[in-house]
Each structure stands twice: as C-alpha cells, then as structure tokens.
Amino acid sequence: MSTLDAHAGHHEEGSYLSGPPGIMAKIWQWATTVDHKKIGVMYLFAVLFMFFVGGMAALLVRYELIDPMRDVMVQTVDANGDLVETTATQGENLKDLFQGLGMAGDLTGTQIYNRAFTLHGAVMVFMFIVPSIPASLGNFFLPVMLGAKDVAFPRLNLLSWYIYLFGSTFGILSILMGGVDTGWTFYTPYSTTTDADHWRVVLMVTAAFILGFSSILTGLNFVVTVHKLRAPGMGWFDMPLFIWAVYATSIIQVLATPVIGITLLLLIFERIMNIGIFDPAMGGDPVLYQHFFWFYSHPVVYVMILPAMGIISELLAVHARKHIFGYRAIAFSSLGIAGVSFLVWGHHIFTAMGELAAVLFSGLTFLVAIPTAIKVFNWIATLYKGSIVLNTPMCYGLMFLFTFSIGGLTGLPLATLATDLHLHDSYFVVAHFHYVMMGGTVIAFLGGIHHWWPKMFGKMYSEPGALIGMALVFIGFNVTFFTQFFLGTQGMPRRYANYVDEFQFLHQISTYGSWILGLGMFVHLAVFIHSLVAGEKAPANPWGGLTLEWECESPPIEHNFHHEPIVKHGPYDFETTVPPHWDPKDYPIHPDAGKATH
Amino acid sequence: MSTMTDTNPTDVPQSILKSPKHWRNRIAGHHWRTGDEEFDAAKLGMWLFLTTEVLLFAGIFCGYAVFRMMYPEAWANGSHYLDWRFGAANTAVLLLSSWTAANAVRCAQLDKQFWLRVNIIITIVCAALFIFIKLKFEYMVKLGEGKAPGTFFSYPYAQDPHEPLWWSLYYIGTGIHAAHVIIGAALFGVVLYYAKRYQAYGPTQYTLVENAALYWHLVDLVWIFLFPLLYLIH
Fold first, then answer.
1. Residue B70 Cα, gap to closest chain A Cα (Å)
2. Which of B40, B55, B176 sits opposite A228 (nearest CB)?
3. Cα torsion through A413, A415, A416, A422, rounded to 10
4. B-chain residues within 8 Å CB-CB of A262?
C-alpha cells in the first residue's frame, strides 16, 4: 500500500479476526462488535453448539428405541426356597441411563423419552435450524457478496444476536429445570394443562417467542440490505443465487414470525391467566392454535430449506466451474417457494378440517413441488459437462441432490389425502421430514461451511479428513432415516417410546445409523479444530469462485474491501472470466476465460 | 429556506451547533454512500417492521373473527358492556396525536425546532391521556365489576357462558395495543430528548422523527380497527 492510499483511508487494514492485545479486550471487542462478520461467526458457533445439544438429544431418543420395553417374568428363589415369579420391565434404556447418572428422579422411562424428543425438536427447530444458515453464513456473506461493507443496520444485527442469546437462555433454563414433554409444537390443550404447577413450559414457550424477534430482525436487516446496499453495477439479476435464496427466506421470516409471536403470547397468557382462547373447557378452540401455529411453522420450513438451496447453487456452479443453468428460473423459484409457503399450512392438520378445505390444501401443497423441481433440474443441468471437482463441498452438494430429492418426493404421498390417511403421524413423516431438514438443510450447511471455511478463518482444512467425515455422515444419515420409511409404512407411529417386537430389527439398524452419523459429525469437528489450530493459510480464492467474497482477502479485512468493488461480470461467468486472485499453478480455468472483452 | 425556519443559528449555543449529533453535523454511517440512502433504508426497514406489527395484530383479529362466528351471543353482549363514548374519546385523542406526529416530521423538515418539540410533547401527552382513559374509566371499572378475562371472570349477571372469552380477547387486544402506545410514547420521548439536547433533527436528518411517526400512525390505525370491532358492531 502506498502512502497515497494510506492518506485516503486505505491504509494496511488487518483481518477482521485481528483484535486488540489481551483476552479481556478481545472479548469486549467481540461482545460489542457491529461487524457482520464477527456476528456471523458468533452465530455460527452458537448454532453449532445448539446442533450438538439437539444432536445429543437425538442420540438419546435413538438409544431408547434400540429395543422395545417389555414386561418380563423374572423367577427368583425367596428365603423359604420357594420359586417366586415377579414382573420386571426391560428395555427402559433412558431410565436406566439416567438412574445410573442419578438424574432420573421419579420419572418413568416414557416420560424421559418424551422430554428427550421434545428437547431434540425444540432445540433443533428454534435454536439451530431456523437461525442456522441465514444468521451465520448469511450474516457473514450476504453483505460481502453484495459488495457492501456491512448489513444495512449493523447495531440491529448485534441486537438480534443478543436476543438470540437471551431467548436461548430461557430454553436452556427450561431444560436444566427438567425439560418439557409437549413436543416442539406445544399443541394445546396439553401444553396449557401439563406440568401446571411448574414454569418449564412457560419458559420454553417464552424462549421460542423471544427467538422469533431475533429471526424477524435478521430477516428485516437482510431485505433492506439487498434492496439498498448492492455494489455499483450489481442489478437484481447479477446477484449470486445464495443472495436470492436468503432474500426469499428473509421475506418469510418477516411475514410469518409475527404470527407465531402472537400465538405463543396467547399460549403464555393461557397458561398464566387461563384466558381460555385455546382451552375447549372454556369454549376456546385448540384447532385455532394449530392453524396459527402452522401458519408460521409451515412457511418456516422454507426458512430452513431456502438458504440451503442457495448454498447448493453456489457449490455446484463453483466446484463444477460451470455457468449456472437457468439463473432466473432458480431465482424466481426461490420467490415462488416463499409465496406458496404461506398457502399450505393446512396440510399439517388435514384431519382437523372439512373435506373441501383438505382437498384445497392438498392441491396447494403439490404446487410446492414445481419450483422445487425446477431448482433440482437446473442444478443437474448445471453439472452436465461441468469440470466437477470432487472435494468436500461438491460431495455435499451431490449428497444434497440425492437426499433432498428423496425428501422432496416422499412429501408427495404425504400431500395426497388418500395415502396420507395411512402415513400421517407415522415414521414415514419422521423420515420425510429428516430427509428434507437434515438431508437438505444440514447437508447444505455442512457443504457451505466447508466451501466458505477458508474465507471465514483464512485456514484450509484437511481435505481427506473432511471427506471421511462426509462419507460417514452420508452412510449414517441414510442408514438412520431410510429404515424409518419402512417403519412408517408398516405402521410404526411417531413419538412412541415403545413398539411391538416386529419393528425391532429396523429400529436397531436406525439406531446404529445414528451412531455412524454422530461419529461423522465428530470427525468434522476434529477437522475444523485441526484447521483452526494447524491449518495452512488459505489463499484468497481457493476454489476459483467469481462472486465478490472471493475478491476479499482470506479472512476479509475489517471493512471487507480495500476499495468499493464495481461489478463487471456475472457471478457464474466461468467461461469468460479469470477468477480474482487466480494463480495458474492452483487449478485450471476455462480455456476461453479472459479472452472476451469486459 | 431561511424564511421558513424560526431558529436563528446565532441564538443557538455553540455547544449544540458544534455537537456531532446536531443535524447539520451528522454524517452517514460508514457503510453508506450518502445520508439519503441511509434514510431510505431506515424507512424501508420501518415499513417492514410495521408489516410484522400488522401480522401480530392479525392473530388477534383472526381470533376475534373465529369466536365471533362461534359465539355471536357472547360477542353481542360483550360489545354492549363497552361504552362507545370512551372508545370515541380515545379515538379522537389518538387521531389528534397522529396529526401532531405528522406535524413533528414537517417541523423537522423545516428546521422549526420549537414547534417540533411542541408537537412531540402534544403527542406524548395524548398517549398518556389515552392510557389514562383506558385505565381509569374502562379497565379499572370493568375489573371492579368482575368483567375479567378467562377464569378470573366473576361478573354475576353474565347471560352467555362464553362472555369470559370475549373479555379475554378484549383485554389482550386492547392491552397489547396499549403496550404499543406506551412504546410509541417512549420512542417520542427519545426523539424529544435528542431534539431538545442536540437539535438532532433538521431538513437533512430527521430519520428517527419520521420512523417514530410511522410507528405512531400504525398504533393509531390498529385502534381505528379495534374501536369499531369492539365497541360499535353488535
């Protein structure tokens, strides 16, 4: 940097990770930062911690289900030498586990199981998967990919982070006080009457209520950022598809979350003051709760999956070095999914409504398949004749195409009224849901973290280690959840701690799968820790990406860019553009790249 | 422009004129190209936030519609218990305050610092008056008669078993609205403080006045719907 630059304010700026000396000063700097990158990184570690908590609960659930609870005759010889027959319950695995730890209290095995799966659901939905991609990768990369220095409202961004922490504290408090067993959906009247003398349910509902505000503020911030902070030269259709996806997500967050806000507020009033709105004993309507709940909670499913789809668009294009196929179709299908998402909540409560309404909701639900399929076909067309590099992000991208397609297609029999009668509330739903949420969102999230890890932390990770983790996740995930499709079609209902003996074989396989899956996650964790401690320095553009984050240094400087970037090429023009910071010895690029005049 | 201002800069103490918070000295945030862009963004953000507020109240209106359909008798009785005159008085109070809130924005745009403060003060006084009427003549009287929400209902002359539900919705709807009135008044309190202490708002910098007024208009608008639904239609 010349002195001239220094005079103009472009002096040597350190990376955003470099802070003042002294641990307390560093902590204070991070705690009060309004830098979207630091907030994104804090979110990343927070949601990954929540993923760990929710994942542990999932392993507990699977551990209970490894065998059914059986009442067996036990023959013992008493003091008189007579044979005495007593019954004993076997297979209450969680109870045995928690008794061994001295934590079971007077809870029965099924009660512990109910709390474990509620904990899993509530933590995973409200504290992990809703904020996961937008709040971490979105926060970090949305402004950078737009060529901006920060999000539109940096202080609001910090506020939403603290609201997230504040809300999560309530949730953790509820868990530490013993947890709740309502299911993550808090259906009334059970949620308003159970544990009546205790604050646990109110705390957990309050947590979800508060977390909603964090979600709203993040979404609001992103919408305004996309509208107002695009770099010069970047029109709407020059934006990377990840931005389109996060934009559509943000719109859903802004429009759907207030409804769960008022719903949970009413639920809290119902519990504290018995207002009776959802209580049938007082003339209230529990089905009204379900409508309110799903009016938010169905659109929020697309809050979970849309950013994942955005990541996949980036991964496939960059790691196949190919112009994305059907840019506008993918962009508009994100908005299409966001639009349709508000019209399909009724498919969660087919049995609680009239036939005509059920038919209408069924038909509307099928509509979701259209924009979703448009995306999948465009991604596959992108791969066609691409120079595919089978690194970890790409493998996660391909895995997404496989698992998400299974998840999406198994949604169709659930949207069909006739087949849904047989499949609803069964393990088929559990499997479908996890193929979309885990096989879709978590897989894409993992792919995205690997894709952007060098940019975020300036360190490369061990590619072989990450590939091993990826393979274990792929195998473990499919073993865990593919078996559950069969369990569901054979009639295994969801949310039960116990089952008939015929299901044991499949349940066992599923549980073994969950262990492989957990192992894969720990391999990833080890790879990431190794990378942070001993990873080699990452180049500015390790993959040859063309979006603006690859023009930054790795890790980016405090204000992202040394100069405000001017966008001269599209985000996927691999055939005509030489990637920024490209070194010919790193990787080949398209032979025609750079020949066309800009 | 100078003919429209009532503030002669020479009358203003140097400490205020030199303050970085004075509207003439304000610069856009580091990530904005111009102050205008920052203003537009803040306004867009506020409109989005107002959308979320509308959807929040939509839940209450939706509950109102559902139970009105299920229990028309209870709803008809319920609205008979409410005195429309108090509702109308509060409507007038809020409409007046909305007018002064809009005036405050105009005064900021014209650098009329004195009238900016006067309009904000009237708005805050109206908010207090609204809460006073609500508490003194409605909530306290009705709660005293046993017209309380849900299981606390103890009014002995109820004619319909579902009247407790009506009162639940009445208190939640008007209560959440009243909370918004208080938040809006507090927001104007902040605006008033900055206007008085730093003259922070003027022709080129009035974002917070504008957004507070937008919020206030929404609070007003929600009441415009609550008033007929609760007090007027039977």
1. 9
2. B40
3. 60
4. 56-60
3-state class (DSSP) for residue A416: coil
- d(CA A507, CA A183) in angstroms, rounded, equals 21
Please tell me the predicted confidence (pLDDT) of residue A89.
83
Which residues in chain A touch residue B57, judged by CB atoms under 8 angstroms apart?
Answer: 262
Whether residue A596 is contained in a domain is answered as yes
d(CA A287, CA A352): 7
Integer Cα distance of A182 and A209 in angstroms: 16
Within a domain: B27: no
DSSP secondary structure of A156-174: HHHHHHHHHHHHHHHHHHH
**What residue numbers bound the domain in which A565 lies?**
537-598
B60 chain-A contacts, CB cut-off 8 A: 262
Query: Rounded CA gap, A318 and A297, in Å?
Result: 33
How many domains are there within chain B?
Answer: 1
Angle (CA) B149 B152 B156, round 5°? 95
Closest CA to A339 of A378, A297, A367: A367
In DSSP terms, A86 is beta-bridged to: A74
Query: How far does A562 lie from chain B, in Å, by closest CA?
Result: 13
- Domain assignment present for residue A577? The answer is yes
Which amino acid is residue B187, in one-letter code? L
Q: Which residue of A has its CA nearest to B74?
A: A283
Q: What's the Rg (C-alpha) of chain B?
A: 22
Chain B's closest residue to A227, CA to CA, is B41
CA neighbor of A512 nearest in space, from A547, A545, A487, A477 = A477
The C-alpha of A26 sits at a distance from chain B's nearest C-alpha, in angstroms, of 22
Closest residue to B172, CB basis, from A261, A269, A274:
A269
What pLDDT shows up at residue B9?
60
**DSSP assigned state of A573:** -
Neighbours of A162 (CB within 10 A): 12
Chain A residues with at least one Cβ partner in B under 8 Å = 143, 148-150, 152-154, 156, 216, 220-221, 223-224, 227-229, 254-259, 261-263, 265-266, 269-270, 273-277, 282-285, 288, 292, 559
Question: For chain B, what percent of residues have pLDDT higher than 70?
Answer: 96
pLDDT at B5 > cutoff 70: no
What amino acid is encoded at A28 in this protein? W
pLDDT attached to residue A216? 96
**Range of B102's domain?**
46-232
Q: Is residue B75 in some structural domain?
A: yes
Taking the C-alpha atoms of residue A106 and residue A112, their distance in angstroms, rounded to an integer, is 10
Q: Is residue B17 part of a domain?
A: no
Q: Is residue B22 assigned to a domain?
A: no
The model's pLDDT over A177-236, given as tens digits with 9 standing for 90+, comes to 988 999 999 998 889 888 877 889 999 999 999 999 999 999 999 999 999 999 999 999
Minimum mean pLDDT among A522-531, B9-18, B173-182: which range?
A: B9-18
Q: Could you tell me how many CB contacts below 8 A there are between chain A and chain B?
A: 117
Stretch B31-42: mean pLDDT:
93
The values of phi and psi at residue A126, to 5°, are: -80, -35
Please name the residues in contact with B200: beta carbons below 8 A apart, sequence gap of 6 or more. B21, B22, B23, B26, B194, B208
Give the ipTM.
Answer: 0.92
* Residue A440: both structure tokens together: 């879709």
pLDDT digits (tens, 9 = 90+) for B50-98: 999 999 999 999 999 999 999 999 999 999 999 999 999 999 999 999 9
Write out residues in chain A with pLDDT < 70, as ranges.
1-12, 596-598
A256: in domain:
no
Contacts of A282 in chain B (CB under 8 A): 150-151, 162, 164-165
Q: Tell me, what CATH number does B65's domain have?
A: 1.20.120.80
A381 found inside a domain: no
| Structural domains of chain A, count | 1
- The verdict on a CB contact (< 8 Å) between B52 and A216 is yes
Please spell the DSSP secondary structure of A269-308, one letter per residue. Answer: HHHHH---TT-GGGT--HHHHHHHHHHHHTHHHHHHHHHH
